Amino acid sequence: MASVSPAAPGVTAKSAGPGNGRSVLSRIWRSYVLRRILRAIFIVWLVATGVFFMVRLLPGNPVDVYINKQISEYGMSYDAAAAQAAAMFSFDPKTPLWQQYLDYLAGMTHGDFGMSILSPGTSVTDKIASHLPWTLFTVGIALLIAVGVGLVLGMLMAYRRGGFLDHAISGLGSLLHAIPNYLMALMIVVFGAVNLGIIDYATIRGNLSPGIHPEFSARFFQDAFYHASLPILTYVLTTVGTWALIMKSSTTQVLGEDYVMVARARGLSDGRIRTAYVGRNAVLPLVAQIATAAGFVVGGAIFVESVFRYEGIGITLFDSVAARDYPVIQGVLLVVTITVVAANLISDLVYSVLDPRIRTGEKED
């Protein structure tokens, strides 16, 4: 029978030298933060490339759309409309696609999205900068209200499972969740303005009332909130039910955890258990979903802003698609993508701080 001799003194199981342990590149790749950043950059490039080719699959191009509009609406001849388009637009539809793509990527890396075809002399960056804050204003306020109200309602439903309040809020939340935001906007206009007459649709349309200009004053903010009230109401009604249902499910799961039972056995007050044990852990799974929800709301703004003629990034995208304004379409969708990806990246990092267990790349260090 073979015998195993003990290891000689001074000899270790692991050999010393550069081969021991993981390489520097391996350690960097296993970094949770770096992996998330690299993934975010890849997603932005992938979406930017997809948008570039997809917009060019739309029938017609900016020059053709403009010529057809001049002929159908103003009765111009084709030659006159073509000459006007040539003098007005710098876009050349005959430029090779690969050259357009390389120019697009080169500009994107420098933050230059080009010039608007529909508005000669206006850069895409200026156009986005003048419209995006209005959309972020309505979406941001609506998200804060919807999430706050939804979290409170969800916890109430979880603590009163099977009761009247649970069934009533669950049914209403499911109904509101099933209604698209553009349909909700139309319902608000039809019932609130046409049937009931409680909404003055003629004056509430747009961003600001005539004579009001952006400034740091109570008059400006009051008027801005007045015109943003209907888009905000639309976003809140179509998302608050979703947050309530998600929070109910998360809270119900946390209430069954062992640490909650131990806290009750220790005699801790219900208020402390709800905040320190139940509330904090029930909210954790929702952190990443908030950023995703913000992206969907911004994406849906194109329909809501069209209904209320709210001059945000959504209606800018709508008008640009109709006119085949390629640079503006690409710039708007890229900015929305970067916003959503950045929000998801931040939520991932915040989530990793709140729950260090998910930093799998750092566990073994």
TrEMBL record:
Keywords: Membrane, Transmembrane, Transmembrane helix, Transport. Residues 132-347 form the ABC transmembrane type-1 domain. The chain crosses the membrane at residues 37-58, 134-159, 179-204, 224-246, 282-308, 328-354. It is found in: Cell membrane; Membrane. It is a multi-pass membrane protein. One of its GO terms (cellular component) is plasma membrane. Its main location: membrane. InterPro entries: MetI-like, MetI-like_sf. GO terms for biological process: transmembrane transport. It holds the Pfam family BPD_transp_1. Belongs to the binding-protein-dependent transport system permease family. This is Peptide ABC transporter permease.
